[in-house]
Design a protein that fits this description.
The complex is a heterodimer of chains A (115) and B (113). In chain A, a hairpin with a 6-residue loop joins strand 5 and strand 6. Chain A is 0% helix and 48% strand. In chain B, the strands form two sheets. In chain B, strands 2, 4, 5, 9, 10 and 11 form a six-stranded mixed beta sheet that branches. A five-stranded antiparallel beta sheet of chain B has the order 1-3-8-7-6, with no helix packed on it. In chain B, strand 7 and strand 8 form a beta hairpin. Chain B is globular, with a radius of gyration of 14 Å. The chains are: A mainly beta (115), B mainly beta (113). Chains A and B meet through strand 5 of A and strand 4, strand 5 and strand 10 of B.
């Protein structure tokens, strides 16, 4: 039971390049999330998927797209990377976004540097 | 605006000592408050959850308190260990909207031998 896994762990991109961050969970959770974490700031929600087949924008969606491939997998794509997207990205999942007491389980993160 | 503020930003203590971390929030309507521990290079892991009606909850050497009237919470760590070195994040859940989690910026704790 691996929980939430993310790939890659580290990535360096040049400005303008594209890439996809992968996330998978094996807890049969309905809801999945993508966050970014920057120094001195709390985790900020980029996009989330309350259930398979749905996605919604979070607090900072500009420059990103997401795909809920199936119940297990939720990917985050940067179409044209910018230095401002240098950050640590976390994927998380929870049983059901609408339930108030759901714990979010986080992946180990992807550290992305855009030059 | 819904906000969660934590203090101090960072803290250094000696192994074996106790410490208390603070979390103040302006989230409304309020549902619950979680404390997460985030080790360096890892994702956050939940320590405890406090609901509106709970004042105190313990998880081993971690004790969380909640005062819903003053909108304050604290996390007390007893007899600190080197493994307690981490960031501690306060997350408040609102009953409003589909996405409800408001994250604090965290307190970075360093425990020295």
């Amino acid at each position: 039971n691996a929980g939430v896994t993310q790939t890659p762990k580290f990535q360096v991109l040049k400005t303008g390049q594209s890439m996809t961050l992968q996330c998978a969970q094996d807890m049969n959770h309905n809801s999945m999330y993508w966050y970014r974490q920057d120094p001195g700031m709390g985790l900020r929600l980029i996009y989330y998927s309350a259930s398979e087949g749905t996605t919604d924008k979070g607090e900072v969606p500009n420059g990103y797209n997401v795909s809920r491939l199936n119940k297990r997998e939720f990917s985050l794509r940067l179409e044209s990377a910018a230095p401002s997207q240098t950050s640590v990205y976390f994927c998380a999942s929870s049983e059901r976004a609408g339930s108030l007491y759901n714990e979010q389980f986080f992946g180990p993160g992807t550290r992305l540097t855009v030059l | 605006k819904n906000q969660v503020e934590q203090s101090p930003q960072s803290l250094i203590i000696l192994e074996g000592k106790n410490c208390t971390l603070q979390c103040n929030y302006t989230v409304s309507p309020f549902s619950n408050l979680r404390w997460y521990k985030q080790d360096t290079g890892r994702g956050p892991v939940s320590l405890t959850i406090m609901t509106f009606s709970e004042n105190t909850k313990s998880n081993g050497r971690y004790t969380a308190t909640l005062d819903a009237d003053t909108k304050q919470s604290s996390l007390h760590i007893t007899a600190s260990q080197l493994s307690d070195s981490a960031s501690y994040i306060c997350v408040v859940t609102s009953t409003s909207g589909t996405y409800k989690y408001i994250f604090g910026t965290g307190t970075r704790l360093k425990v020295l031998a």
